[in-house]
Amino acid sequence: MQHPASKDQIAYWDAVASAHDCTLQPPLELFTNYLPKDAKILDFGCGYGRSLAGLSALGFTDLTGFDPSPAMLERGRREHPGLDLRPLASKELPVPDACADAVLLVGVLTAVAEDDDQRGLVAAIFRVLRPGGLLLLCDFPLQNDARNRERYERFAAKCGRYGVFEVTGGGLARHHDPAWLAELTGGFKRLETLPLSAVTLTGKPAEAVCLILRKPA
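^ thats the sequence. predicted structure below, dont judge the formating
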């Protein structure tokens, strides 16, 4: 199990970059209830910039995205040439402490299999958010259908935990126990919890969740 900046995971996302369209559609319009249009918003694991493009369309102006996949960034620069998209070369987020009003983490934890790597990522986000800053986290909880339960069981011994599995092409994915997400984000105040409908990389329907969280002031 590897951090999304590992060579294997980068190779996977590079390979699917041209064909993969993000299926998670976070309710970005909710940011207008919490933030001024000049708020500094960072998107870690931005892919080809879909969420940032959505925020730009809503009138937000200070937007920066980071992603470890060169192919995803190349696609994003082609499709959204006005966005500021930057490489993410390590686990350290290359921005100062308490510099951001909000951070997006959309479909990123599903690519981070290890508990410690997820903890490190959330801690890094906590560091870069100003007091009172927001985290919008969208990802996949454990699914209850027979297909997913079977593959959770099948890969549990190999991958080290229930909910982690291999996907076609060699990448790893993780679906999350809601109790783990609550523990992982325990340093934040939860403002909203919204169920979402999505589809997987292979076009299968899936349930997702969006959390809007605030760093304590």
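The chain is about 30% helix and 30% strand.
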